[in-house]
Inverse folding.
């Protein structure tokens, strides 16, 4: 029973006690001692925590950022001067678009889970509130019926009392003076006087009690009217909560539709890139067309990487030993070798391994070691990871669509360190693989037959 219902129950008891006093029963008036009770939504339970709304806002902002990034990519593609350039831009940005869609799906899933939890909590709360309101409405109806019955009893008691007084007044033989003078002895005179005193006292008590009871009933009726107003307010609030719940359900359904659409788009993008390989000719053409710009960018990227190696300062522990393992199982096509390329205008610090269906395939740790760095270069290596093998030897795996390890993690030879993609400066899915000694790259093919 909620506080509101308890208060009405107390008022009903008070009403019964008051009316009982009019009929001669000695009772004490039970006062509830409280004013209008706060609704359950205000005192019995708290609204959704602010941090839940903050989380929803955060997810919405992140989704908006992803949408803006996707729109920017699409705008760049749409502004291409020719269909060929448009196709090249689409191909170049495909993996980045896939990573954005994956992030979008993850955010939508988190948003859906949050909404489902909120909807479940609201449904439980609304069911509880409806039960309390139904109980309170029943008590109000019971109280109103009791008030009507007791007012009828009071009216009957008062009418009976009034008839008796009128009969006494109309009958001179039973007047107070007549009763006293009709006594045959002094003792009988005193007895009649005492009886008349007690009758008068009882009549006065009945009159006083009738007056008090009517005042109490009036007070209870006034409070009951306030309680009914409070109940109406609770019902109005409940209707508002139901409307909010319906809006949340619609939002959930919309998010699920968005999730399905995003997943469908992702499948299309993945299938589009799955059978492609790195287009080194397109990469060369782009490089030569933007030679100065890309050469300057390459210097920046290598300077950044050299600084990273300097800070990492590969461990002084001994080399783990053994030969290096080919980093991509079942794929041996090399689309770009170590050394100078593009008419000796660009120095390639590793080898590019590609082939049909390579997208999403695992890149393996070429030897046992410790993950010492995970980075992101949108105009260079894309997603990349560096593994330290001791003795100054490190391997680097770039253009990944997904990194599957974390910094500090020890990996064994053959463990997956990333999934092959086409992030960064890339013209198709491939793995850029480097081996460095004391931070200086050398030809990985010298380690393989």
């Amino acid at each position: 029973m909620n506080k509101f219902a308890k208060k009405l129950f107390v008022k009903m008891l008070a009403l019964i006690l008051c009316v009982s006093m009019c009929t001669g029963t000695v009772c004490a008036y039970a006062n509830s001692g409280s004013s209008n009770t706060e609704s359950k939504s205000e005192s019995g339970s708290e609204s959704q925590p602010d941090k839940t709304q903050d989380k929803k806002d955060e997810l919405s902002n992140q989704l908006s950022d992803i949408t803006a990034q996707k729109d920017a990519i699409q705008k760049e593609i749409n502004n291409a001067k020719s269909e060929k350039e448009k196709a090249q831009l689409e191909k170049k940005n495909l993996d980045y678009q896939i990573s954005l869609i994956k992030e979008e799906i993850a955010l939508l899933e988190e948003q859906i889970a949050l909404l489902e939890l909120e909807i479940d909590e609201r449904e439980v709360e609304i069911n509880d509130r409806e039960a309390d309101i139904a109980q309170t409405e029943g008590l109000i109806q019971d109280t109103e019926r009791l008030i009507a019955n007791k007012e009828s009893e009071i009216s009957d008691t008062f009418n009976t009392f009034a008839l008796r007084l009128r009969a006494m007044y109309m009958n001179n033989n039973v007047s107070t003076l007549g009763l006293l003078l009709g006594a045959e002895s002094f003792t009988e005179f005193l007895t009649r006087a005492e009886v008349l005193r007690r009758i008068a006292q009882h009549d006065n008590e009945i009159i006083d009690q009738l007056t008090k009871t009517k005042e109490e009933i009036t007070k209870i009726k006034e409070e009951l009217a306030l309680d009914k107003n409070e109940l109406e307010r609770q019902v109005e609030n409940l209707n508002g909560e139901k409307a909010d719940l319906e809006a949340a359900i619609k939002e959930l359904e919309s998010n699920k539709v968005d999730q399905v659409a995003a997943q469908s788009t992702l499948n299309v993008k993945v299938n589009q890139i799955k059978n492609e390989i790195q287009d080194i000719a397109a990469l060369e053409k782009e490089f030569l067309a933007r030679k100065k710009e890309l050469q300057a960018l390459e210097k920046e990227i290598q300077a950044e990487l050299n600084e990273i190696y300097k800070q990492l300062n590969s461990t002084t522990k001994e080399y783990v030993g053994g030969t290096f393992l080919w980093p991509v199982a079942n794929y041996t096509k090399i689309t770009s070798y170590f050394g100078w390329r593009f008419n000796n205008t660009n120095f390639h610090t590793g080898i590019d391994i590609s082939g049909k269906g390579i997208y999403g395939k695992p890149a393996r740790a070429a030897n046992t070691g410790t993950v010492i760095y995970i980075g992101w270069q949108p105009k260079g290596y894309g997603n990349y990871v560096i593994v330290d093998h001791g003795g100054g030897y490190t391997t680097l795996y770039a253009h990944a669509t997904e990194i599957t390890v974390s910094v500090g993690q020890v990996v064994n030879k053959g463990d997956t360190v990333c999934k092959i993609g086409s992030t960064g400066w890339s013209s198709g899915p491939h793995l850029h693989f480097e081996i460095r000694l004391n931070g200086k790259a050398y030809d990985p093919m010298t380690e393989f037959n």
Remarks:
- Residues 21-46 have pLDDT under 50 and may be disordered.
- The CA atoms of residues 109 and 259 lie 7 Å apart.
- The first helix runs from residue 3 to 22.
